[in-house]
Structure formats: C-alpha cells, structure tokens
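A.,

Following up on our hallway conversation. Structure tokens first:
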C-alpha cells in the first residue's frame, strides 16, 4: 500500500493536481488529500485553486459543483458511480415543475443536488450555512427548500419559518436507530450525542449538538475530555480520532447493520487504487452541459459570497 501512496503523491506532483476529500471518505483517502472538509469547504477550495486538475474524492454532485465553479479545469472523480441518494431523490424535471408552480417563492437548494436542480435555484446552501442563509431573507419571504426534508424541517423549527419542503432524504442519515442510540445513552450516560441535521427529527431530539460534519468535528475538538455518540456517516470518526486521539467516539448504529456503524456505500466506492488510476489516466472526468453550468454557477457563487460575509 505504501508504494501506491507514493505513486499517487508522485503523479499528483507531476500533474499539479489538487486532491480534495470529504470527511466521509475512507481514512486512507482522507490522509492523502490536500484538503479534507465538509461540502462547503470542498466548494470553497475548488473555487480558489489554481491547479489545472481537481480530483474530487467524494460523490458526483461534489465533482459537478467543482466543475461548475471551474469550467476550464479538469475535474476527476475516482469512481463515476459514486452518486448520492439525496440528490437522486430530487429529479431536475420534477423539481423545476414544483418551482414553476410557486413562482412567488425563493428557491433554496441544498448542495446535495444535481447541477440541473441548482440551475433552477436562487441560492445553494450546505449544512454549515443553511440556517444563516435562510435567515438572511426577510421573515415573510416565501421559500422553497429542497431536497432534504429533515434538514428543511430542522431549519423551519429553529427559525420559526414555514418553508415549503421537497420530500427527499439521505439514505444513510435516515437509517439511524433511535432504540440503539437510547441504549448507548443508557450505557454511557455521560456521552454527548452529536447529530447531522440530515437525521430524522426523532434522532435530532436525542442530540446534544446538531451540526454539519465540520461543526460536529469542531465541537469535539473544543471538548476532547468528553465521550461522544456520533450520528452521521462514520467516515468522520477518522478525522475526529486523529484530532482527539484520547477521546472515545462511538458511531451511532443504523437500524440494521452487523458492524454497528453507518457507512455511505457511494462514498466508499472511491479507493486508493481508483484514485491512482484516475490521476494516471485523467478519467473519469466530470462534464456539465455549459447551458446548465451557466445557470447553476450563480446560486453557488451566491452561497460562497454570503458565506464569506458571514465568515464561514
Ligand atoms: P456536510 O458536508 O455539509 O456536513 O454534509 C454532509 C453530506 O451530506 C455529504 O453528502
């Protein structure tokens, strides 16, 4: 494996490529990346890099977002089949029809969407900035929020808004077992429950801290003396454990699993071997229809501008 790691590093240098990885990637991919981050950070790094090649170790919509922001760069993904159940829960034609039926509504879309959905969106959000971006609109603003019904309901609850929600969800975050988290809490009464807002509201009710992957990591780093039950994709435990080596992190279990942790099968499609092959062959490459990219770039740029103003 060390030969493969060295070969990736060598190719990366030769080709002046930037490797970005989401926290849900396998640990060995996170370790070799130039930057590891949440969805917002990945978009921010893509937007500012001067590297001619970006390798997005994440899922397809993350590569698309990078391509839309950097149309002149080559954006590669190690495995083109790395999709997203949440993005799939929002077909662009159906969403466009929904938007057309509510012409007086501002459209806020989660970053976990295809470029075609972003093309009919006013502003994109991630879990890091969703609350602040929603609150940047007047209280009476009519808003469509898609596609994650759990994140949308959570934002509605904490802001007192009544946004119209698209009925989509992430198959990983929907799977956490309330019963198993309650059992863990009984076993470890001192444990702090960290949960991603894509989880169902019954899980969020059990949580002490609700936040994006970056926010949950930040909380743990600030309080390493505590013990944690973590209700988000278990890849985040790699960075948590790296930053807090003496802290106990327990992955919250899904309803049915033998290993007790909750992994995204799409995120796990990327491997070191596929990363090597994709750097070597410069394929698979993300492409986005330029007419769609031209429309999709505006709401993404708007998100980046608002986030910069908010210091996110
Ligand atoms: P964040 O990266 O914003 O925490 O969201 C996680 C996610 O949904 C990745 O697909």
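Then the amino acids I'd put at each of the 312 positions:
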């Amino acid at each position: 494996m060390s030969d493969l790691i060295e070969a990736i590093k060598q190719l990366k240098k030769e080709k002046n490529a930037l490797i970005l990885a989401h926290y849900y990637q396998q640990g060995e991919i996170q370790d070799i990346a130039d930057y590891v981050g949440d969805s917002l950070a990945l978009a921010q790094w893509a937007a500012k890099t001067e590297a001619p090649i970006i390798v997005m170790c994440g899922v397809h919509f993350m590569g698309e977002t990078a391509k839309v922001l950097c149309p002149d760069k080559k954006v590669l993904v190690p495995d083109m089949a790395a999709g997203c159940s949440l993005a799939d829960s929002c077909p662009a034609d159906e969403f466009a029809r929904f938007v057309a039926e509510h012409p007086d509504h501002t459209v806020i879309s989660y970053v976990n969407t295809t470029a075609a959905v972003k093309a009919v969106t006013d502003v994109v959000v991630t879990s890091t900035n969703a609350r602040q971006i929603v609150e940047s609109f007047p209280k009476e603003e009519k808003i469509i929020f898609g596609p994650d019904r759990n994140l949308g309901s959570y934002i509605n609850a904490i802001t007192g808004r009544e946004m119209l929600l698209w009925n989509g969800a992430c198959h990983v975050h929907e799977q956490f077992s309330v019963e198993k988290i309650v059992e863990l809490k009984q076993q470890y009464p001192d444990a702090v429950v960290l949960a991603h807002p894509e989880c169902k509201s019954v899980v969020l009710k059990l949580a002490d801290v609700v936040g994006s992957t970056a926010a949950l990591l930040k909380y743990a780093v600030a309080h390493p003396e505590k013990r944690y039950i973590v209700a988000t994709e278990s890849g985040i435990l790699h960075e948590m454990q790296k930053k807090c080596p003496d802290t106990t992190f327990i992955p919250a279990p899904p309803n049915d699993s033998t290993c007790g942790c909750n992994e995204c099968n799409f995120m796990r499609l990327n491997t070191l071997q596929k990363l090597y092959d994709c750097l070597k062959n410069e394929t698979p490459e993300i492409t986005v229809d330029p007419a769609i990219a031209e429309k999709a770039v505006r709401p993404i740029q708007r998100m980046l501008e608002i986030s910069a103003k908010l210091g996110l």
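The pocket of 1,3-dihydroxyacetonephosphate is lined by residues 38-39, 112, 126-128, 198, 212-213 (CB under 6 Å). Curious whether your intuition agrees with the design.

B.
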